[in-house]
Structures are given as C-alpha cells and as structure tokens.
Amino acid sequence: MANEIHFQEDAASITDPKGFYAAASHADVRKKKDHRLDTGILFSRPPCSAAGVFTLNAVKAAPVLQCQRILKLDTSVHGLVVNSGNANACTGEQGMKDATAMQVEAEKACLAPANSFFVCSTGRIGELLPLEAITKAISSAGDAIRSGATVGSGFAQSILTSDTRPKTCTASFRIDGQTVTISGVAKGAGMIQPNMATMLAFITTDIQADSTSIQNLLNEVVKETFNAITVDGDMSTNDTVLILANGESGCSLNASSEVLFKEALFKVCDSLADKIVSDGECITKVVEINVKGADSDTDAENIARAIGNSLLVKTSWYGNDPNWGRLIDALGYAKARIEQELIDLSYDDVPVLVKGAPIPTNKAQWRKCVSEPRFSININMNVGQGSYRLRATDLTEGYVNFNMSE
Amino acid sequence: MANEIHFQEDAASITDPKGFYAAASHADVRKKKDHRLDTGILFSRPPCSAAGVFTLNAVKAAPVLQCQRILKLDTSVHGLVVNSGNANACTGEQGMKDATAMQVEAEKACLAPANSFFVCSTGRIGELLPLEAITKAISSAGDAIRSGATVGSGFAQSILTSDTRPKTCTASFRIDGQTVTISGVAKGAGMIQPNMATMLAFITTDIQADSTSIQNLLNEVVKETFNAITVDGDMSTNDTVLILANGESGCSLNASSEVLFKEALFKVCDSLADKIVSDGECITKVVEINVKGADSDTDAENIARAIGNSLLVKTSWYGNDPNWGRLIDALGYAKARIEQELIDLSYDDVPVLVKGAPIPTNKAQWRKCVSEPRFSININMNVGQGSYRLRATDLTEGYVNFNMSE
User: Fold this and answer.
1) Residue in B with minimal Cα distance to A94
2) Percentage of chain A with pLDDT > 90?
3) % of chain A residues with pLDDT over 70
4) Is A198 a catalytic residue?
5) A3, B22, B161, B281: most buried by Cβ count inside 10 Å?
6) CA distance B162 to A222
7) What one-character-per-residue DSSP string does B302-347 give?
8) B397 touches chain A (CB under 8 A)
C-alpha cells in the first residue's frame, strides 16, 4: 500500500537504511575489566548530508563542541564514533584534543576523508578519556566496518550507560516505486530533561536531502519528542541528536515526499523518546501530562514541567497515591497564567477537578488510574489555546540508591 | 551590655515578648484518634501592628487569602489562629467560609474585636477542614488564653506536620534602658522552597512600630533567610510569615533602634530558616551554597537553586560522593552568564576547580568534606558582583518512602 508507514522495533537496526554500516568494540572505559561494548562506529560509504540538535546547557562537553564545529563546515559526512562510560565533559583543552583524536582515528579506520566524522561521548563528567584504549577499540571497530559489518545490535549496546536495554526502531515508506527507510538508536537514562538530555540519539536515512531541509525537519520533530520528556529534570552536558542522510534510496526529500518523511521521522524520534523515558533510572511509571487551553504553548510547557519535575508529585505517583493537591500546588508555581476556578483536570478520562472543583466521589477510580504503569494527566486551563505534552516518570527509592554512589 | 543581642533557642517561647499569650488544643484534624496538638492560638491583649509575607504560588490556600485581606484593612490585630493536618487549600468557596469561621471563632474565644485575627492552616491539600472539631478546639484554647496561658511550647507543637521537632528562638536587646524582645516559631518540613514554602513562621515582638516600617524590614529579612532555603524545590500553597508588634516594651522602632532590631529580626528568621532546612524530610545533610562573582544577584540565585534542586547533585551528597561534574552540569543549565574557564569552586575551603580546571589531587579531601553532615560549596563565577547564599539538603530514599504514601 502506498503512503503508509511501516514501523518496527524488535528487529530494527541502525543499518536498516541502505548503505550504512555499524560496529562496536570494547575499550574498558569504565576500568571494570568486563567485556562490555563501549565504543561504536556508524559509517556510510556514500557521503551524507547531516543535521544535529545539541544540549542547551552552557557547559557543553568537548565532543558536543566538536560536532558543532563539524556541522558548521557544511561538508559531507560519512559517520560518527561514540564511546560510553566517560562523557569527556569539563575536561578542558585536553578534552578537546581527545575528542579530535577519536574523530581522526575513526576517519582513518574507515578510510574516510578528514572532518567527515562526528564524535560523541556519554558517561561520567570531569574525567579524562582513556584515549589509548579507545583508540585501539576504534581501530578494531574500523576493521569490522571495512569488512562490511551491518549488524547494528552491538552498536546499540555500545552507547548505553545506565540504560537497562538498547533502544532502536525503524520506519519506512514507499513512494514513487522506491522505499525510504529511517532508523534510530538512542540511550538514556539519567540526567534526562533533554533540551537535549544525557541522551544520545543517532538517526540514519537513505533519503536524498540537503542539510538545511533536514535540519529544519529535525528541529521541529525533536521539539515535540526528545525535548518533551523528563526523568529527573537534569539537563546534561552531552545531549546530542544527529541524523545522517546518504541518498541511497534513490528518493529525494521534496514536496511530494516531505509529509511522509516527516511523519516517519516523527515516529522514529517519538518511539526513541518513549523508550528513553520508560527506561528511566529505576522508574516504575510513565505519566503523560497533556496541558491544553493554556495562555500560550510556553505557559502549557511550564505547567507540564512544574508537575513532571515536582519531587512530591513524582513520589506520590510511585506510591499509587492520587494526590491531586500536589499537582495543583506544582501547577500554581509554574510560570503561567492560572485561573484556579477554570481548571479541568482528569486522570486518564476520570475527572478530578471540573472548573476548579474536586469530584471526590471518583476517588476510587483515580486510584485505579494512578496504580497503572502508564496513565495520563489531562489538564485544560480554559484560558487560551496553548498546549504541551510531556512524558515524565515517578521517583523511586531505587533512583536515589542508584545515584548516591559513583 | 548595651548594643548586644542576646539570643536563645532552648528555652525560647513565642510568648517571650511582653504581652503575648499562647495556647493549643486537639481537634483530631488527622482523624487518627491520638492526642496530638493541632490547633493553636497566639494572642496579644494590646493591639498590634502587623506585617506578612506570603507564598507566591498562584494557587493560594483560603487562609492565605484571608490573611492578605486582614492585612489590607490596615487596622490593629490581636492574634492568630492556626491548625495543622489540613491546609484548607484548593477547597473553593467552602474553604473561604471555613477560614473565616476559624477566625471569627478565635476572635470570639479571645474576646477580641472583629477582623483582628489572622488564620493559618498547614497540611494536606484538597480536603475540607473538620470545622466542627476545630471550632471546639479553638474554644478550648481560647479558655486557656483568657486564663492567662503564656506557655508557647504547646503552640509550637500544634503547628507541626512532618517536622520531627518544634522550632523556636528568641532574640532580645537593651536600648535606652528598655528591653526589646523578638520571638519566632516555625514549621517545615516538606514542600520547602519557600517563596514562601509549606512553611509557617510567626514572629512576636514588643517593640512599638507602624505596620509599613515593620513590613519593609520583614521583606528584606525574609528574602535572605526563609526564601533562601530549599528541601525539595516545591513551593507550597500556604507559606506564610507573620509578625505582630504590640509595643509593650515601651521602645519604638526609630533611627536609633532600627539597626539592632533588624539584626535581631534577622537572627530570629535565619535561625528558624536553618531549623526548617535541617529538619527537612528524612535529610541527612545541610549544604550551604555560596555563589559570588556572578553577573547579577539573580544569576547567582539561579545558579545556587539549579545546584540545590538537582536530583543528581542531591543524591550524590547523600552518598558522600564529591561528584563535582554534576554540580557543573546543574550550573550549566541555570539561567545565568557562565564562563566555564573562569569558575572557581571549592568544598568548604578545599579547591575543586581553579579557573575551570580540576585539582584531582584534592579528591580525598573533597570526600572528607562532603561526608560531613554540614558543608559548604563556594563558587566564584568571576564575571561580576552578584552573590547569593542558599541552604539546601540532600535527597534520600527515606524522603521518597515518606512521601510516596498519603
């Protein structure tokens, strides 16, 4: 069937789009003497146009600065190299040298031209990379790439930190007799309030597109997907989303393909964002907060984030407690126009407040909603047209325990 | 000795200033059939000038609105009535009626004129007060007041919620042969990022002062004390600080007494603010974050709050982990001017970063600092003259467990 997007998660690989290769290796970045994959390469033999979205944190890790430098050159790229376990953030000049060294080593290992690779790191902040070990691992992953490795599962493993599972998906559609494929791979799972968060996401596609068009589409889609999740309200120094488009499908991004392409890109990003939030550190619940009728989209976002980041709200979710008073308290300190006596609020479709007045007879149903692993909070401020959707998590003793030690 | 402030905490009572009475009673607001004091009255026979500072939360509890109404009348007041266990917040018109009923009952019980009492509530949000039981408790506390009760300890108990201990202190000084006394009583302990937080603080003094002068002084002092603490980053619907000045000392607030009075008021508020943060829900550490050299005081405050409210920073404190990378990450997403390569940072007086570069040889000393129940984080941004001091707490599994259930 034409004009239909085929979407898959289970057997998806970042190498599903034509012409992409991936491999991973072990540099023992964490010095744990295990065999954990921690260094990955993604490669396209045909040159790609590329786009990226990066953390807005004023403190940016060295690889983020390096990616931004590469993007600015506006030349073709061929791939990226990434390590987990060490973020190469707050590492000063040596960090910049190390990021460049990783990039150069990967280009060499893949026989790619200079300045054609992005470089990413994720993990602990403030320590220098074990560069020698990473260099060896890059070289070994490069050997696999040159021999034609197209298995993305090792790559998807190699970028993980506190994630409990890899995160990949693939969307494809047919147009004008050709198949266009978009694949993504991502990692979470703490320091997640992207804008971007300690989050990396890499997207490959075989559509033909110029970098400006693809950057514009990426900006639009990231805003409503990766940037609309929160685990702990902390925005990382390393958040990066990169997309590489190599044109191998034979189909171009144009007026007739753009709607489908954007829809497929949205599906990929939305699915990865959901995978990140639902694999948040030691969480037990994902809560979708839908705010509408706010004075502006910004007001709606402020309200959703105040609720989704409130410790008291998050702990009550963990305890299956429909404590709407804490929701309203958080809403009240959001920077937004609030007319308390106009607010409609429901858990899923069960009313909690109607025009500001509680419906306490629904209490048993509220409790049933918030006891589920997924539920939604739907708020109509009834003062305007602004809306926002945020996916948030609960806060557990496990999160505290997990993050209290190095 | 003249011009010296005498300060005491252990035997302090809100009735230390001349002419103040206090009593407490039990209304079983929590329906636990225990004997917990939960209803209190504070009374001055001589009329008082008064001032107040209230939550900036857009959702204000009924008693907050009622206090603001009373203050606006700018007439003399004689006291206040308070209950714990139920915040009378998000309770609509009935909540306003109940707040007024509490006030009227207290005025009646103390034989005080109409509109001469403040009313405060603290506790769970979104449920109606058990008014009949509270009315009886007010009447019984009124009996004690009329028979001359001046023991503040029951009153200090009656306002507590999740606090583990009462919080009182008294400062006094002599001037022109007379003694001026200021006493305060407060409660925390969750939903604490005052501005104000689920925090109540009541201050009595026997100085003679007009309400405008005392309001101005209160505003200045609260900004640097109660408003500069955070336990969980949640700002409550009920935060209230009230001061009553009855003039019984025979001394007036004037050019010669103002410096000492302000210093004494600061001591009282600062001590109560410290008692609130150090009795935060299930905390194990109090951390003073001192930011200086910021582009503005607002920048300094944004930096301090980003750090003090970061879940990852707070959990690392709990774990005695000198994870400065998380500090710098939080600093990086604060809305402030940041020149990473200029930042000086230390734990107590042990350098962590000097001009942005880490001093890893100090690591053992960092760990010693952050293992203490109190330590400071001192940051010089080296870009301007802005400064801010915030007292924050760690985040523990106990906090999550405590707040997950009703």
Assistant:
1) B357
2) 64
3) 95
4) yes
5) B22
6) 41
7) HHHHHHHH-HHHHHHHHTT---HHHHHHHHHHSSS---GGG-EEEE
8) yes
Q: Which pLDDT score is estimated for A235?
A: 65
Chain B, 272-301: which have a CB under 8 Å from a chain A CB?
A: none
**Which chain B residues contact residue A399 at CB under 8 A?**
311, 315, 400
B56 touches chain A (CB under 8 A): yes
Cβ atoms of residues A180 and A249 within 8 Å? yes
* pLDDT at A229 (0 to 100): 80
A249's torsion region: left (phi>0), alpha (psi -120 to 50) or beta?
Answer: alpha
- Asked if B325 lies within 8 A of A89 by C-beta distance, the reply is yes
Q: Which domains does chain A have, with CATH numbers?
A: 6-278 (3.60.70.12), 286-403 (3.10.20.340)
Segment B112-169, tens digit of pLDDT:
999 999 999 998 888 899 999 999 999 999 999 999 887 789 999 999 988 888 989 9
For residue A255, whether the previous peptide bond is cis, meaning omega lies within 30 degrees of 0, is no
Tell me what the mean pLDDT of segment B337-352 comes to: 94
Q: Write the CB contacts of B305 (distance below 8 Å, at least 6 apart in sequence).
A: B193, B230, B233, B334, B390
Q: Do B328 and A237 touch (CB under 8 A)?
A: yes
Cβ partners under 8 Å of residue A293, min gap 6:
A344, A379, A380, A381, A382, A383, A384, A385, A386, A387
For chain B positions 108-167, those within 8 Å of chain A (CB to CB) are: 124-127
Cβ within 8 Å, pair B329-A395: no
Please compute the mean of the pLDDT values over residues A140-168 and round it to a whole number.
89
Could you give the angle at which helices A62-73 and A92-109 cross, rounded to 10 degrees? 50
Residue in chain A closest to B232 (alpha carbons) equals A311
Dist CA A331 CA A300 (whole Å): 10
CA torsion sign for B327, B333, B336, B342 is positive
What distance in Å separates the CA atoms of residue A323 and residue A330, rounded to the nearest whole number?
Answer: 12
- pLDDT tens digits for range A201-235: 888 999 999 999 999 999 999 888 888 887 666 66
> Which of chain B's residues have a Cβ under 8 Å away from the Cβ of A58?
331-334, 336, 338, 340
CA distance A348 to A356: 17
Whether A195 has a pLDDT exceeding 70, the answer reads no
Q: What share of chain B is helix, strand, coil (3-state, %, to 5)?
A: 35, 30, 35
Q: pTM for the complete prediction?
A: 0.79
CA–CA separation, B36 and A330 (whole Å): 29
Strand ordering across the sheet containing B286-294: B229-230, B386-393, B286-294, B374-380, B344-347, B350-354, B357-358
pLDDT of residue B197: 38
Read off the pLDDT of residues B367-393 as tens digits, 9 standing for 90 and up. Answer: 999 999 999 999 999 999 999 999 999
Among A113, A99, A94, residue whose Cα is nearest residue A69 = A99
